Amino acid sequence: MSERTFVIALSERGDVLWVRIVKERGVVVDYALRYETVINGEVVQVVPCDGSHGRGHCHWVDSDGKRAQRLWAREGLDLGDALTEQIEDLAANWQRYRDDSVSERSLPKKRGKQRRRGNRGRR
């Protein structure tokens, strides 16, 4: 089993894509990607992706840095193809992902649980 880790610089402002690939007999058996940027002087994880669970997927991170949603790679892709697609997507769209992350992080934080009002129990 071999493991390779490297960084792809996306900009001169600190936008980077961390890549870790684990191969067995030349076949990708696991990987991790992490797009990071700098917001207000702080390194922020914007989109992490990995090949755990046997299928590639990315996690969309909310303004608190918590994983909010998982987006699975297309069905039928092996981990090597999923890795390639996710690297290509992050390399092509990192600016949009950064802008979305910056705008979400600038929103005021919600306090406590918000109660959803509906017409339950009403006739």
Counting DSSP H or I runs of 4 or more residues, the number of helices is 1
Q: Output the helix-strand order.
A: EEEEEEH
Biggest pleated sheet: 6 strands, antiparallel
The count of DSSP E runs of length 2 or more, i.e. the number of strands, is: 6
Structural category: alpha+beta
The low-confidence parts are 107-123
**Strand-residue fraction?**
35-45%
Mean pLDDT: 82
- Rg calculated over all Cα atoms: 18 Å
Number of domains: 1
Intertermini distance = 64 Å
Secondary structure: helix percent: 10-25%
Strand order of the largest sheet: 1-2-3-4-5-6
What's the shape? globular
Describe this structure as you would to a colleague.
This protein has one helix and six strands; from the N terminus they run ββββββα. Helices cover 22% and strands 41% of the residues. A hairpin with a 5-residue loop joins β5 and β6. Strands 1-2-3-4-5-6 form a six-stranded antiparallel sheet. The chain has one domain (2-105). The protein has one helix spanning 79-105; strands at 2-9, 16-24, 27-39, 42-50, 57-61, 67-72.
List the helices and strands and how they pair.
Layout lengths: L1 E8 L6 E9 L2 E13 L2 E9 L6 E5 L5 E6 L6 H27 L18
Antiparallel strand pairs: 1-2, 2-3, 3-4, 4-5, 5-6
Would you summarize the structure shown here?
With 123 residues, this protein is of the alpha+beta class.
